[in-house]
Amino acid sequence: MILAALALLMSPPAEPHRFVYLGSGRYAQYADLTSLTPEGSGGRIRVFQVVEPDFRAAGAGYWGGWSWWRFDCSPGGRIDRLDFAAVREGGGEGPAMVDDAPAYEAAPGGDAFEIMAAACNPEDYDTDATTLEEAVAHGRAQLAING
């Protein structure tokens, strides 16, 4: 037990996130550009959705949720949400639920289009947050402004 705790303390810190704000509507959405993994003419990226401060389910408070997305940057490329995992207040992540919906063409102005724009052109974006807590604070401020 003590050795396990010591190992955790001595392990290198996790790589910081590179959250870029994509917009807000019902949720504030952030692409984590550190998760960007190239695959062919596209790749995979993890996106975090921030919810309002008072969001609760089954008595628990939530910060939002993570989703992995697969995308294709070629003309007419498609995007596919692969899963969703809720994130409780404090950062505890629930199990991922698979999203079986088929890939689709991202419509300009929509959330998926914004994900593809950031994923296909990451150098065009400034970092808005480097921790999950910062992304939640930034997202909730955006929701308050745009709500």
Number of strands: 9
Low-confidence stretches: 1-13
Named CATH topology: Lipocalin
Residue-averaged pLDDT, rounded? Answer: 90
Q: Roughly how many Å apart are the termini?
A: 47 Å
Counting structural domains, the number is 1
According to CATH, what is the class?
Mainly Beta
Task: Using the 3D structure, state the CATH architecture.
Answer: Beta Barrel
How would you describe the shape? globular
Helix content: 10-25%
- What is the SS-derived class? alpha+beta
Strand portion: 35-45%
Give a short account of the largest sheet: 9 strands, antiparallel
| Gyration radius from CA atoms, angstroms | 16 Å
Total DSSP helices = 3
Order of helices and strands: HEEEEEEEEEHH
Mind explaining what this structure looks like?
With 147 residues, the chain is α+β, with helices and mostly antiparallel strands. Mean pLDDT is 90; it is low at 1-13. It has helices at residues 2-10, 111-120, 132-146, and strands at 19-24, 28-39, 42-50, 56-57, 60-72, 78-81, 83-88, 97-98, 104-105. The longest helix is centred in the last third of the chain and has 15 residues, at 132-146. It contains three helices and nine strands. Strands 1, 2, 3, 4, 5, 6, 7, 8 and 9 form a nine-stranded antiparallel sheet that branches. It has a single domain (14-146), classed as Lipocalin.
Outline:
This protein is an alpha+beta fold and 147 residues long.
Index terms:
147 residues; alpha+beta; 9-stranded antiparallel beta sheet; 3 helices; disordered N terminus
List the helices and strands and how they pair.
Blueprint: H1 2-10, E1 19-24, E2 28-39, E3 42-50, E4 56-57, E5 60-72, E6 78-81, E7 83-88, E8 97-98, E9 104-105, H2 111-120, H3 132-146
Antiparallel strand pairs: 1-2, 2-3, 3-5, 4-5, 5-6, 5-7, 6-9, 7-8
